[in-house]
Amino acid sequence: MNFVKALTGLAITVTLIVLFCCSGSSRDQDGNSIGIIRIGTQLWMSENLDVSHFLNGDEITEARSPEGWVRMGIEKKPAWCYGVNNPDNSNGYGRLYNWYAVNDPRGLAPKGWHIASDEEWTQFIDFMGNEVLAAMFMRGSGLSEEGNKPINTGIKFPPAGARNSNGGYLNPGSHGYWWSGTEVNGSDAWCRLLNYVQCNIYSLDFSKTAGLSVRCIKD
């Protein structure tokens, strides 16, 4: 019975969201078209951020090797990478950024946008009803038969995984990790973790030297 209620609640919520869906006509600093979807009173990007430049045009360093990734973290310098170092993973998955890129004053988010704060993530989940309903919507119908590609969703939250502080990769194909723009302390910041298998989303603190996906929200 609870499962039926959850599905009913999700269907109602998705219907409300679909009524407000819109396609974006603006572009980010790398020239990518920005898709937009309204969730409650919020306007979210419909895909993960996929840029290699700051808003002022400065290039962000790509850290391919584990050693390069670790060095950028130790030096507290902004860096990005492809998921599991595969450029094909940029298509639909976006790129992974350390928090020094997220928080750089040159601006990682496109003009008129900002990195969603922890509070704004909470507002999104509250609008969906709870963490499970939010996760159901975010992951859509689940994973493909290959187990590593998201099936169509109303808003794309793909399981791009993450890169840890040592340069290794975490859970590509089964988990999605997104930075918030909210610090915990000098070494950590808040993020959201979507577990595609367990169908739940969690708030947790992560080292700023890690590489996570980024989702932006309209100013």
If you had to describe this structure to a student in words, what would you say it looks like?
α1 crosses α6 (131-139) and α5 crosses α6. It is built from 6 helices and 13 strands. The strands form 5 sheets. It has a 3-stranded antiparallel beta sheet with strand order 1-2-3. The chain is of the alpha+beta class and 219 residues long. β2 (36-39) and β3 form a beta hairpin. The longest helix has 17 residues, at 2-18. The protein is globular, with a radius of gyration of 17 Å. The protein has helices at 2-18, 66-74, 90-93, 99-102, 118-128, 131-139, and strands spanning 21-22, 36-39, 42-45, 61-62, 79-81, 96-97, 113-115, 162-163, 169-170, 175-183, 188-195, 200-207, 216-218. The protein has one domain.
In short:
With 219 residues, the protein is of the alpha+beta class. It has helices at residues 2-18, 66-74, 90-93, 99-102, 118-128, 131-139, and strands at 21-22, 36-39, 42-45, 61-62, 79-81, 96-97, 113-115, 162-163, 169-170, 175-183, 188-195, 200-207, 216-218.
Distance between the termini: 40 Å
How many structural domains are formed by the residues? 1
Strand content: 15-25%
| Rounded mean pLDDT score | 85
| Envelope shape | globular
Uncertain regions spanning at least 5 consecutive residues: 142-154
Strand-pairing-aware structural class: alpha+beta
Helix/strand order, N-terminal first = HEEEEHEHEHEHHEEEEEE
Largest beta-sheet characterization:
3 strands, antiparallel
How many beta-strand elements? 13
What does the radius of gyration come to?
17 Å
Helix content: 10-25%
- Please give the count of helices: 6
Strand order of the largest sheet: 1-2-3
